[in-house]
Description:
Layout: H1 6-9, E1 16-17, H2 23-32, E2 37-42, E3 45-51, H3 52-62, H4 71-74, E4 81-83, H5 88-98, E5 102-106, E6 112-117, H6 118-123, H7 127-132, E7 146-147, H8 153-163, E8 167-172, E9 175-181, H9 182-190, H10 200-203, E10 210-212, H11 217-227, E11 231-235, E12 241-246, H12 247-251, H13 259-267, H14 269-275, H15 277-282, H16 285-292, E13 297-303, E14 308-311, H17 313-319, H18 323-326, H19 331-337, H20 342-353, E15 358-366, E16 369-381, E17 387-396, H21 398-431, H22 437-448, E18 460-466, E19 469-476, H23 480-486, H24 495-502, E20 506-508, H25 510-514, E21 525-533, E22 536-545, H26 554-585, H27 595-612, E23 616-623, H28 626-633, H29 635-652, E24 658-663, E25 666-672, H30 676-694, E26 698-704, H31 712-728, E27 734-735
Parallel strand pairs: 1-2, 4-5, 7-8, 10-11, 26-27
Antiparallel strand pairs: 2-3, 5-6, 8-9, 11-12, 13-14, 13-17, 15-16, 16-17, 18-19, 18-22, 20-21, 21-22, 23-25, 23-26, 24-25
Amino acid sequence: MCAKRLSEIMTPGVVGVSPDTPVFTALELLRNKNISCILVLEDNEPVGIFTERKVVQLAAEKGLQLDSYAISDIMTSPVLTASRDMDIYSAYNILSTHKIRHLVVVDENNKLCGVATQSNIVDHLGYEYFIEFKKIFQVMTTNLFTVSRGYSVEQTLQEMAKTSTSCLLVAENERPVGIVTERDMTRLLINGTDLKGLNVEDIMSHPVHTAHLTLPLLDAARIMKETRIRRIVVVDADGKIAGLTTQSDIIKGLHGLSLQNLKQLVVEKDRELEQTSRKLAEKTVYLDNILHSSVDLGMVAADLNYHIVYFNPAAEKILDIAAIEVIGRDIRTIHKKNEVLAPRFDKLVEMIQNKKRHEFTFIKEKEAIPCFVKALVTGIWDPDQSLIGFVLMLQDVTERTLAERKIKRQKSDLEVMNAELSALYAVSSKISQTLEMEVLLDEVLAVITNIEIFNFEQQGGIFVVDGDKVQLVSHIGLEESCLGYQNSRGINDCPCGRAIRSGETLILDSTEFEKTGLTEKKSHGAVIVPIKAQDKVIGGLCLFTPPDFAGLDDDKIVLLSTIGNQIGIAMENARLYEQTRFLSLYDPLTNVANRRLMTKGLEKYFSLAKRYKKIFSIIMLDIDNFKKYNDTHGHSAGDKMLVRVATVLLDDIRNADVVARYGGEEFLIMLPEATLETALLTAERIRQKITHETGTTISLGVATYDSSMTKNEQLINKADEALYRAKKRGKNRVEY
């Protein structure tokens, strides 16, 4: 397997400045963006680099009186660069050889692509790398720069600049109490802090990240990545400083180590065993050392008589058997102890003789704890391709197996969560599309019955509380014979009412569900979910379940309750919308259309008449002597008269006609598809009916659209003129 390339691990987003950028601007960028370096670019080509270490060195040599300097005066140049295709081993060799932490990555035209650091390399080292270095103490640095709390910060600056040291430890009784890094010193210097009189105790970072000597190196790398630190102080059992491990220490094993060769050692061990099969019989020191160095890879070798000739320490640990107990014994005894039957063993030997390998995983208990072991069996072949033995390779994969199972569980949990969120989104999305109550409920019901995680049938209904009854307001897939029956049920007479009263979700079997009256089939069950708005149950959601319905777990019940609440809020919003809409389009006194709705209607019908040569007539009417009536009987009586007149008008007109209050005691009636003759007959009928039912008289003017009209105002003016003539000619009459 190929090593990773810099293009895969580099940091692409790099802060760059031009060569003429003032130094103080670069210093502020280091501080504000919390970065360790800035690149100096010309036409996106790197010409220099400015790092935290450079800040420390400049401060030690000249102080930070650099106001007159440009970044080009003090940057490190030329810049060490590498191509995007360079592997991480070669990159590390450059970093190590030149004792730098940043390697600039460029393309074939020397244009900037990114920066590769030691952090990038550590983050992308595979598990195989850490096999070579098992514990943190194996790579730690013991030559440390350690000072007491009272050590001078000025002296610290000089020492760090002189030795190019990235940090120093502050210790008390040989135990770490703080740490001072180049970044700490850089921030101090950029902020203009006066170092005189300061001790390291005043500026150190604490508490310190520590680890015991035996911490696995893989865990140390993970801690550095998660906590975004570059170093860990290594302590002994008494908490005393034993060393320091940095990212440089972790990856120093890359010097001369090929990750590919290491992986090949693990994955293709059988090939190496074939090449050294003759030496295996004599147990040469060379092979013995190689096999013993396989810390995590258990290896067992046997000859053609199945006698064990090699059993390494890792195999002892994995199989919980001492090598001295099995060397020279028949390997089948181990298989028998682990309950591997003889026919299975014979089949395995036959596979190997046919130059095949066999991989399997088995579970072995240690102190009543199950351990997962991955095994590979293959043959050992001499140069003439003759089988001369067998080798069994073992690896304890308990940690990985448990991690994979945990990931699988988490994946399953995420899938469930995603399904639940998708369900909520589907309902919310549909709710957000309309405020029309009837449309809203029908579409939401269709969405809910199609949500896969519930496994509902595409049948159900939505009820609302209407006094002491429940009323079916929306349904899907219900038999026609059930609809009227259900609308007559009292809230105390059916399970739907019980769910509404209790405020809890009910799951009904087929027997209980028959009582709802919603189905004639015997095999259905149902789930009934209360619909709530402002903590008050206003209805119920009834959803049919199939015969094989497996029920609902607590999470799904909670999800359905949430959906019920969403529907409740949507219904309340729809009710408010309808109320607001009514108030905005209808006269609050007479409940007929107001001037706004009248104007929209006139525009609509006039446009249809003009475009499609449709017939359209209007009637304008006025209550005779209304002012005198008001003055005589009072405004309250006048209002009641307006309501009575409006009621007669609404009762008399066709469904297609629209009555509007034009203003004061005037009304306008729009009659689409009505000829002048029809409009006159309608006007006369209305005049007589109002006189008969209210005791008052009205005057009416009728007008019909003709093709010479270009604006609806012309039609209104014509009706108004006719009304004026009716008034002038004695009132209580119809004119046109």
